[in-house]
Design brief:
The protein starts with a helix and ends with a strand. Helix content is 6%, strand content 51%. The strands form 6 sheets. The chain has a 7-stranded antiparallel sheet, with no helix packed on it. A 4-stranded antiparallel sheet has the order 5-6-7-8, with no helix packed on it. By secondary structure, the chain is mainly beta. The protein has 2 helices and 27 strands.
Length: 384
């Protein structure tokens, strides 16, 4: 009996240890050491719709989806009774003046518009002389507008969002308004400049970049680039006062726009500054030392063709659209620049028109707004 009991204990001990034996240690998953990006698409089937007739100005387009987009601005109907609209809506089939609200509910003339998957902010001025800044918010879930009209002098020129409920808009005489949550109110602050901000973009709500412009009757035109970092203003470039400039730019480079991108894995920062000469500046973290590359060296032919870049839209470092003067529009896919020939736009390099930001839906469709003749605008839709 004792032998049977001892055998039972030994067998149980062996089976217990076999059942509890730890599996062999697996090597840890290798973490990525760099950011990788797919090459941006260049192949689209295009549709062009005229949405605004003389006398019109457009602030841009925002698309919630392939079949749900808004174009905002001062939109002429082009026929009697010559009405003007604040916006039009793309319903998947046509552009209509039904923007889920009236012009009074929108409350402004748009200079720029942006948004995320359900919330849109359009900024500009309201109907008063001299102009006062104003903006409209649109919640695509409730289909409701809310407008704000401010008392500072001038117009709001540009707006950016982190896609998480933070919005920042900037404009004349260094004015800045921020909104940190969808339900929050707008908060005003004054940048330490009298230049007007025409472009604002950011990495997140703590790292924002601005391109500013001013024209002086006595001293010609000047440009500035600013950074707002955790509430502190840093002037990074100034053609009027070049002492201590951070970006290696010349006054004759004639910058027109700025775009930024940061890789979180390597904490590496890319800043694109485009104009008569166009550059990529690369740095680390919040450092203020940069390596400069002229985009002409990467194949951008604008300068060699006697043209300049008027604007830039950056989705990823391998998906960048640069709007050149005279409809010279180029796309960077990480390997080379290619001119985007869009049916319906002039290709003779002699015509001139305002080209606005490219917008892209989650499905890869692009919306692109262009002036095709004096104060006549089209929206182009590119289906991948």
């Amino acid at each position: 009996m004792k032998k049977q009991l001892l055998a039972f204990v030994v067998i149980s001990f062996v089976l217990f240890n076999i059942g509890c034996k730890k599996p062999p240690t697996q090597p840890p998953d290798e973490k990525p050491t760099n950011c990788t990006y797919l090459a941006g698409n260049r192949n689209y089937t295009w549709r062009m719709d005229t949405v605004a007739w003389f006398p019109s100005t457009l602030g841009g387009v925002w698309a919630f989806s392939d079949s749900d987009a808004y174009v905002m601005g001062y939109i002429g109907e082009g026929k009697t009774p010559w009405r003007i609209f604040a916006g039009k809506h793309w319903d998947g089939t046509q552009w209509t003046t039904n923007i889920n609200g009236t012009d009074e509910e929108v409350g402004h003339v748009a200079n720029d518009v942006t948004g995320d998957d359900h919330f849109m902010v359009s900024v500009g001025n309201w109907y008063i002389n001299p102009p006062k800044p104003a903006l409209g918010e649109f919640d695509n879930r409730t289909k409701k507008w809310k407008h704000y009209q401010f008392q500072t002098t001038g117009e709001l020129r540009s707006v950016w969002t982190d896609g998480k409920g933070y919005f920042i808009t900037a404009g004349d005489n260094g004015m800045v308004y921020t909104k940190d949550d969808y339900t929050a109110e707008w908060v005003y602050q004054k940048a330490p400049t009298e230049f007007s901000f025409y472009s604002v973009t950011g990495i997140d709500k703590n790292e924002i970049y601005f391109w500013a412009y001013s024209h002086f009757a006595s001293g010609g035109e000047h440009r500035q680039i600013w950074k707002l970092n955790d509430g502190s203003w840093i002037k990074m470039f100034d053609t009027q006062d070049t002492i201590g400039k951070i970006f290696d730019l010349a006054k004759t480079d004639l910058s027109n726009d700025i775009a930024v991108y940061k890789c979180d894995i390597t904490d590496s920062l890319k800043i694109y500054i485009v104009g008569w000469e166009s550059y990529l500046f690369e740095g680390k973290g919040l450092g203020l030392s940069f390596r400069r590359t002229n985009l002409s060296d990467q194949g951008l032919p604008l300068r060699s063709n006697g043209r300049e870049a008027g604007g830039i839209t950056l989705f990823t470092p391998n998906d960048i659209w640069i709007q050149g003067s005279r409809y010279n529009n180029y796309h960077w896919n990480g390997k080379d620049f290619q001119q985007m020939i869009i049916p319906g736009l002039p290709i003779d390099d002699n015509a001139f028109g305002v080209q606005l930001k490219v917008r892209k839906t989650s499905g890869g469709k692009v919306f692109y707004t262009s002036e095709v003749s004096s104060q006549v605008y089209v929206v182009l839709q590119g289906v991948p």
